[in-house]
Amino acid sequence: PSYECVFLPSYECVFLPSYECVFLPSYECVFLPSYECVFLPSYECVFLPSYECVFLPSYECVFLPSYECVFLPSYECVFLPSYECVFLPSYECVFLPSYECVFCFRRITCDSASSEVCVVF
Questions:
Q1: What span, in angstroms and rounded, lies between the C-alpha atoms of 110 and 94?
Q2: Residue range(s) defining the domain that contains residue 79
Q3: How many CB atoms within 10 Å of residue 3?
């Protein structure tokens, strides 16, 4: 089999008294003769008086036998945090986000049938 993977990620982080992190990557994977792509991203955001954002995506591609497809997935992760502030001689703010991840991709098979799958985490 031959394949080509093109990763075009972009993301935007906006930090306000509340904050929102939006991850908008898009991917195009073309596997010949056939493929299944499973995207397993994980993210960790730690906010202190200074903050650090660590993005830990991982991807797994599994080859199956007998169709030619083009996957064009996109997903958006929106973090909707609640937070607590603890004041000491110095203070730290700890953000405890809840988030919703929506993974959508369109599967096109060689018999021209297509389906769209969305998974919400």
A1: 50
A2: 2-120
A3: 14
Q: Which residue has the tokens 């056939």?
A: 34
Q: With DSSP H G I counted as helix, E B as strand and the rest as coil, what are the percentages for the chain, rounded to 5?
A: 0, 75, 25
Q: Do 85 and 103 touch, CB atoms closer than 8 A? A: no
Contacts of 4 (CB under 8 A, 6+ apart): 29, 30
Report helix, strand or coil for 10.
coil
Is the CB of residue 54 less than 8 Å from the CB of residue 4? no
Answering whether pTM is above 0.85, one says no
Burial 38-72 (b: 16+ CB within 10 A, else e): ebebebebebeeeeeeeeeeeeeeeeeeeeebebe
How many domains, in total, are found in the chain?
1
State mean pLDDT over 23-52. Answer: 46
Q: What is the pLDDT of residues 84-102, one digit of tens each?
A: 444 444 444 444 444 444 4
Distance from C-alpha of 38 to C-alpha of 83, rounded to nearest angstrom: 32
